[in-house]
């Protein structure tokens, strides 16, 4: 029989600064079916918002599903030792 000891290790979850986040949207307007047109992914929300504005202007559609994605890193916290 193998014996295991599990200890709690304090940690933090942080956004990974080495990877850019992604912003995108797709149109969910429609009565029976969604429009479904997508903005594409961008590293900044500005182009997605501009795409939404243009799509609304061209189609009258006003409802969008926005997605934000990023990468996270789990880091153990430094333990405070004796002074």
Automatic annotation (TrEMBL):
Residues 36-58 are annotated as: Disordered. InterPro entries: DUF7848. Residues 1-76 form the DUF7848 domain. This is DUF7848 domain-containing protein.
